[in-house]
Amino acid sequence: MSKNGYVPIQNVDRDELERHLIGTGQRPRIAMELGGIFEGNGPGIPCPACEHDEPVWLRDKFRNSFCRKCLAGGKYTLYSWVMRCQNVGLSEALSLIAQRSGFAFRDICSVVKTKAEGKPCKQYEPLFDSWFGGHSLYQMHHVIKGVAVIIVKGEEIADCLWRVLRAADIQGVAATTSPMGTADESFWNGVVQQYPVIANKRIIIIPDNDEEGMNYARTAARVLMGAHPRESVKIVELNDRPLREGGNLMDWFVSLIEVGTEPPAMIEVLSALCARVEPLTPDIVAAWN
């Protein structure tokens, strides 16, 4: 979280954000929320930018006047105005405006749905590009720092979960996977030996909805169970909603997006699902053989 109390949204497209602001008419509201401004009697002249004959003028804390319709009557754009009033850089200002306007959620939904459908997504960029090498998991430094770890099958699914966690302002939870979403017991044994700190984490494994996905989850769980001094490993199947054969966490998120669920509520639903699942026990693991 940034010093200004929000979760940064990376790679906000300024042109797309501008179209969103114009289409939703939220620019004045956001300016008032983020600019520290108040309505007042500004100069009694038409706005030079939008040529509104009777503009409602706003004034910021520096006593600069702005047309409420377009915010161009003064010397600042909305972005530079937020940068100055919030004391942030341009990328942070874009991120903050994106969150306040709902653009960030729309962007997340678009990425998740496009990737879940297997289509190319030009606006998609992985949030991370980091592997430690050896027997490491995706974004291992976050796994090491996290209190809880959610393991999925594949980097794109892990990335999707990261985006939703960030948008929901969830701290201390790491989303990860093995290289290329494939791993045998020797790999997981190497993870435990190279990073024994993983024994102190609460681990949730979310399998894809097919036999291959469950085998992946069980292989990881079998090894991680042996490393844990207590019962703290769960396999959580996404069985609360209809999911296609081979469907995964991205498909599950899409089913929530389609009924208007936003990231904080998505995480609440996922947390409730995880809470209903009992931790694995040695007897359960032995029954897999």
Quick take:
By secondary structure, the protein is of the alpha/beta class.
How does this model look, in words?
This protein is an alpha/beta fold. The protein has 2 domains: 14-101; 108-287, Dna Topoisomerase Vi A Subunit, Chain: A, domain 2. The protein is 45% helix and 8% strand. The chain has helices spanning 14-24, 27-35, 78-86, 90-101, 103-116, 140-145, 155-167, 185-194, 211-227, 249-257, 263-275, 282-287, and strands spanning 38-39, 57-59, 65-67, 148-151, 173-176, 202-205, 233-235. The strands form 2 sheets. It has a 4-stranded parallel sheet. A 3-stranded antiparallel sheet has the order 1-2-3, with no helix packed on it. Helix 5 (103-116) packs across helix 10. The longest helix has 17 residues, at 211-227. Residues 1-8 have low confidence and may be disordered.
Furnish the topology, listing elements before pairings.
Blueprint lengths: L13 H11 L2 H9 L2 E2 L17 E3 L5 E3 L10 H9 L3 H12 L1 H14 L23 H6 L2 E4 L3 H13 L5 E4 L8 H10 L7 E4 L5 H17 L5 E3 L13 H9 L5 H13 L6 H6 L2
Parallel strand pairs: 4-5, 4-6, 6-7
Antiparallel strand pairs: 1-2, 2-3
Helix pairs in contact: 1-4, 2-3, 3-4, 5-7, 5-10, 8-9
